[in-house]
Amino acid sequence: MSRVITDSIQHSGGSLEFRFNTTLKCAEIYNGHEWTQIGQATTDVDYLVVGGGGAGGGNWRGGGGGAGALRTSVGTQGGGQAAAPTLTLAKHIAYSVIIGAGGTGVAGTQGNSGGTTTFETIVSKGGGGGGRYATVNDGTEDGLASADPGGGSGGGGGGGSNVGSGGASGTYGYNGGNGAGNTPQCGGGGGGAASAGNTGGSGGTDGDGGAALANTITGSSVDYAGGGGGGNYSSGNVTIGGGAGAGASDGDASIANRGSGGGGRSGDHSHAGGTGSSGVVIIRLPSSITVTFSSGVTSSNATVGSDKVYTITATSDNSQTVTFS
């Protein structure tokens, strides 16, 4: 609870009540209905918030998992969106921070979508799971979407006796690619932050996951949110690749905390598709600002010029916070 010091000033129309809120470190005035802050101290915060990557589809010829939504105030956002404004946040207030987990593969069916990553008002949904071997055309086996608000990339569609459709993207990602059907035998790639997943096929980039997106908030260029590659079988492309940081055919997303999709299952229906990588929150602000995390937050930090960069890679539950002072 806030500790306050209150005073009143008399004037011809009555009295004004003022107080100093020692928790928020600012003055407040009572307007007759509620206490209103005067001169609340703030700080500008740049950010990168990426949702968890979706898992690849199970059975065989599964679609690749879609990448998590990539939202940032530094450089291009996922889906080709321009950089968002820097956040101006009040000091001494706890802001929510949640890291979305990567989706897990499931044997014989669609992969699970990735979890949602949150920083204050910035919400980045996880990528859609890849579709399974396609036998029907009613949408129940297709790649999963990553819908708005805060949506990322869709999962790739599986190959099969029907053509599995890729999942639709939200604002901050791209669609998953369609599967190829029976000939050639190849699932579609999951969408990435920088491009759509490729349709399944027999060679070249067929079935590849959509491209990752480079970002420089940490002071160097790092790729985030690549789509997972589709699963190949028999006549399908044997050189399928995921977007940078993502799993290729059958593989788990290879780099942690990039929000990349896992690869679709290839030739064995009894196994699951690859697991997506978890999301991340990165914040950058002047080194003069003190940053305090609640217990349960896993983070690291580095100094870049006159700024401090904090990378949050895990939260123990949905109640974790960060405070600036």
What can you see in these coordinates?
- This protein folds into two domains: 37 residues, no CATH class; 285 residues, no CATH class.
- The chain contains no helices and 17 strands.
- It is elongated.
- Strands 5, 6, 7, 13, 15 and 16 form a six-stranded antiparallel beta sheet that branches.
- Strand 3 and strand 4 form a beta hairpin.
Total of helices: 0
Order of helices and strands: EEEEEEEEEEEEEEEEE
Mind describing the biggest β-sheet?
6 strands, antiparallel
Q: N-to-C terminal Cα separation, in Å?
A: 18 Å
Compute the average pLDDT. Answer: 89
**Low confidence ranges:** 1-12
* C-alpha Rg (nearest Å): 23 Å
- Total strands: the figure is 17
- The helicity comes to under 10%
Number of individual domains? 2
Outline, from the CA principal axes?
Answer: elongated
Structural class: mainly beta
Descriptive tags:
single chain; 325 residues; mainly beta; 2 domains; 6-stranded antiparallel sheet; 5-stranded antiparallel sheet; 17 strands; elongated; disordered N terminus
